[in-house]
Design goal:
Helix content: over 70%
Structural class: mainly alpha
Number of domains: 1
Shape: elongated
Oligomer: single chain
Radius of gyration: 19 Å
Order of helices and strands: HHHHHHHHH
Number of helices: 9
Distance between the termini: 20 Å
Number of strands: 0
Largest sheet: none
């Protein structure tokens, strides 16, 4: 904790952002574009059939979850996970992924690494909410179940917004941990 406090007492965020070189900014932008593209492709690949969609059961609005549980064919395939388990699993995945991304943009100072990783995570988080969840997910037929085809049931954004706020915390933790780890070598 002392290291964290020292890092933020010595540098201002504006100074850190100004210190990013032309190469670092471009590398960060390239990583953001690649991550957003890959994230969208993974979301696209994980939808399209009832079986694939059931794997993302927790992402669906309560209205859809209720109907899924009422259909025996779907109900037997539901594997509910706790939000805590999902959070920890995602934390580990993004710690590894962003550490790899951080290798290409790392500096010897914690603040620089922290801010760079935080930018990566939060831009991906906003992309996930705005582009994937609120624009694509709510409009595409790929996420709808064959026995629940009505678009109106899929429109409630509450689960997506809750997920966004959990991801804010997760990406902050990833930035703190990876920011520190990247200073070690």
């Amino acid at each position: 904790m002392v290291l964290f406090e020292m890092a933020f007492n010595t540098y201002k965020l504006s100074d850190i952002l100004k210190s990013l070189s032309f190469f670092e900014v471009h590398m960060l932008l390239v990583e953001i574009v690649i991550l957003c593209f890959l994230f969208f492709i993974l979301c696209l690949a994980g939808t399209g059939t009832d079986d694939k969609n059931l794997k993302n059961y927790e992402s669906y609005p309560d209205e859809v979850q209720k109907r899924i549980r009422e259909i025996p064919e779907y109900a037997i395939k539901i594997k509910e996970k706790s939000k805590w388990t999902t959070f920890v699993a995602n934390l580990v995945v993004f710690l590894v992924l962003f550490f790899i991304c951080g290798i290409f943009i790392r500096e010897k100072y914690f603040c620089h690494n922290f801010v760079s990783i935080l930018i990566l995570g939060q831009v991906l988080n906003v992309f996930d909410l705005l582009v994937i969840d609120l624009f694509w997910w709510r409009k595409t037929k790929r996420i709808r179940f064959s026995k629940i085809p009505q678009k109106k049931f899929y429109q409630n954004p509450r689960k997506h917004i809750e997920s966004f706020f959990r991801a804010l915390v997760m990406y902050f933790l990833v930035a703190v941990i990876d920011g520190y780890l990247l200073t070690l070598f």
